TrEMBL record:
Function: Repair polymerase that plays a key role in base-excision repair. During this process, the damaged base is excised by specific DNA glycosylases, the DNA backbone is nicked at the abasic site by an apurinic/apyrimidic (AP) endonuclease, and POLB removes 5'-deoxyribose-phosphate from the preincised AP site acting as a 5'-deoxyribose-phosphate lyase (5'-dRP lyase); through its DNA polymerase activity, it adds one nucleotide to the 3' end of the arising single-nucleotide gap. DNA polymerase that functions in several pathways of DNA repair. Involved in base excision repair (BER) responsible for repair of lesions that give rise to abasic (AP) sites in DNA. Also contributes to DNA double-strand break repair by non-homologous end joining and homologous recombination. Has both template-dependent and template-independent (terminal transferase) DNA polymerase activities. Has also a 5'-deoxyribose-5-phosphate lyase (dRP lyase) activity.
Chain ranges of the DNA-directed DNA polymerase X domain: 8-353
Catalytically driven reaction(s): a 5'-end 2'-deoxyribose-2'-deoxyribonucleotide-DNA = (2E,4S)-4-hydroxypenten-2-al-5-phosphate + a 5'-end 5'-phospho-2'-deoxyribonucleoside-DNA + H(+); DNA(n) + a 2'-deoxyribonucleoside 5'-triphosphate = DNA(n+1) + diphosphate; 2'-deoxyribonucleotide-(2'-deoxyribose 5'-phosphate)-2'-deoxyribonucleotide-DNA = a 3'-end 2'-deoxyribonucleotide-(2,3-dehydro-2,3-deoxyribose 5'-phosphate)-DNA + a 5'-end 5'-phospho-2'-deoxyribonucleoside-DNA + H(+)
All copies of domain Helix-hairpin-helix DNA-binding motif class, residue ranges: 55-74, 96-115
Annotated family: Belongs to the DNA polymerase type-X family.
Residues of the full protein shown: 12 to 364 of 452
Gene this protein is translated from: polb
Name assigned to this protein: DNA polymerase
Organism lineage string: Eukaryota, Metazoa, Ecdysozoa, Arthropoda, Crustacea
GO CC, any one term: nucleus
C-alpha cells in the first residue's frame, strides 16, 4: 500500500511521484503514466534505504530513465520544473473557476486557493469566507452567466421607466450599456438616472426645492442628496419585488439583482443603477453606452476620430477581427450625429440654452 511515512527514507520522492500520478490521472487522463508513477512510488516506499541518485533508483523494478532523471533534478535543485508548471496551471484553473462569482477578483481568488478552496462546490461549504456581494454572486452564479435576450432587457426597461416615473416624474432614466448599442443580448442591465434636484454645482446639497423622492427613506437616511435620490428609486423598485437583492450601494451607484414580476421571465439578472448630476446627464449617457473599448479609444488623442474609423473590425490591438454582437465601432462623427439632437432637445427642455 502507498503510505509514505516518517519511517520511509524516500518519502520526498514518493510525494512528488504521487502528485505527478494524480496529475496524469485527473488532467492528462493518461492512465499508463499514472500507473507508472504510482508503481515507482510504491517501489521507493518499500525500499529500506535512502536513494541518493537517479542511477541508483533505476536499479529498482518499475523505475525507468525518466523517473530517474526526475530524482536527479529533485536532488540537485530541490524541486521539479514539471510540477511547478502543473501547480501554476492548477492555480490558473482554480482562479478562473472562482472568478465566475461576481465579487471575486484575482486577489480574493488567490486568498481562497491558499486557504484550500478551489471549486465552487468547495466554496459553498465555506460561506464564512465570503462577503455579502460574493455570497449573492455564488448563489446566482449560473443565472448571472446566462445572457439577457434583448426582448427581456426591453421588458425590464419598460418596467423600470414606468416605476421611476410613477415615483417622481422629474427623474430621467435611460438604459445604456450594450442594450443601447443595439446588442441582441446583454450581460447586465445598466440604468442611468438623474434628477433636476441633483446637479454638479452642489445645488442639491442646499436642500432647495427637494423633491418628494429625495426625502428620507429607509435606504436614503443619513445619505447625501444624491444618495437619497438613488435610494428612493431602489426602494421603489424593491417594493414590488423587482429588485431582489443589493450587492452594493453607494451615493451614486447601486449594484444589485432584479427579476420581473410574473412568470414570463424567471432568471435573476444583474442590474446596475447610476445616478449622475443633471447637467452631466447626456455626457454620462454617452459614457455608459460605451463600449468600454470605444471609450478608451475616444480618450486617446485629437486624432481619435480617424483612429477609430481605421480600427473598425479589428481587435483591441489591431490584430485581426473580433466578434461584436453590435457590429463595428461607430466613429465619433457618427456618435455625434445621433447624440447631438438628443442633447440639444435636453438643453432646450431644461432651460439650459
Ligand atoms: N464602461 C467603461 N469602461 C469600463 C467598464 C464600463 O467605459 N471598464 C462603460 C462602457 C460600458 C458601460 O460602462 O458600455 C457599461 O458597462 P458593462 O460592463 O455593463 O458593459 P456593456 O453593457 O457594454 O456590456 P454587457 O452586455 O456585457 O453588460
Ligand atoms: Mg452592461
Ligand atoms: Mn454594467
Amino acid at each position: 500500500k502507498l503510505q509514505p511515512s516518517a519511517s520511509n527514507p524516500n518519502q520526498d520522492y514518493c510525494e512528488f511521484l504521487l502528485e505527478l500520478a494524480e496529475f496524469e490521472k485527473n488532467v492528462s487522463r493518461n492512465i499508463y503514466k499514472h500507473n507508472a508513477y504510482r508503481k515507482a512510488a510504491s517501489v521507493l516506499s518499500h525500499h529500506p534505504e535512502r536513494i541518493t541518485s537517479g542511477e541508483q533508483a533505476r536499479q529498482l523494478a518499475g523505475v525507468g530513465r525518466k523517473i530517474a532523471d526526475k530524482i536527479d533534478e529533485f536532488l540537485q535543485t530541490g524541486h521539479l520544473r514539471k510540477l511547478d508548471k502543473i501547480r501554476a496551471s492548477d492555480v490558473a484553473v482554480a482562479t478562473a473557476e472562482l472568478s465566475r462569482v461576481s465579487g471575486i477578483g484575482p486577489a480574493k481568488a488567490r486568498q481562497l486557493i491558499d486557504g484550500g478552496v478551489r471549486t465552487l462546490e468547495e466554496l459553498r461549504a465555506r460561506p464564512e469566507l465570503l462577503n455579502r456581494h460574493q455570497t449573492l454572486g455564488l448563489r446566482y452564479v449560473t443565472e448571472f452567466e446566462s445572457r439577457i435576450p434583448r426582448q427581456e432587457v426591453a421588458a425590464i426597461e419598460r418596467h423600470v421607466l414606468q416605476r421611476v416615473a410613477e415615483l417622481d416624474g422629474r427623474y430621467r432614466a435611460t438604459v445604456c450599456g450594450s442594450y443601447r448599442r443595439g446588442a441582441e443580448s446583454s450581460g447586465d442591465v445598466d440604468l442611468l438616472i438623474t434628477h433636476p434636484d441633483y446637479t454638479s454645482d452642489g445645488g442639491a446639497e442646499t436642500g432647495r426645492g427637494r423633491s418628494a423622492a429625495g426625502s428620507a427613506t429607509a435606504r436614503g437616511r443619513g445619505r447625501s442628496a444624491g444618495g437619497r435620490l438613488l435610494g428612493a428609486v431602489v426602494d421603489h423598485l424593491s417594493q414590488d419585488g423587482f429588485v431582489t437583492d443589493t450587492l452594493s450601494q453607494g451615493d451614486s451607484k447601486f449594484m444589485g439583482v432584479c427579476r420581473l414580476p410574473g412568470d414570463q421571465y424567471t432568471t435573476h439578472r444583474r442590474l446596475d443603477i447610476r445616478l449622475v448630476p443633471h447637467d452631466q446627464y447626456h455626457c454620462a449617457v454617452l459614457y455608459f453606452t460605451g463600449s468600454d473599448e470605444f471609450n478608451r479609444k475616444s480618450r486617446m488623442s485629437p486624432a481619435s476620430v480617424e483612429r477609430i474609423s481605421l480600427s473598425v473590425g479589428k481587435g483591441p490591438h489591431g490584430r485581426g477581427p473580433r466578434t461584436r454582437p453590435w457590429g463595428p465601432l461607430p466613429t465619433l462623427r457618427e456618435i455625434l450625429s445621433t447624440e447631438a439632437g438628443l442633447i440639444r432637445d435636453f438643453l432646450v427642455e431644461t432651460g439650459q440654452v
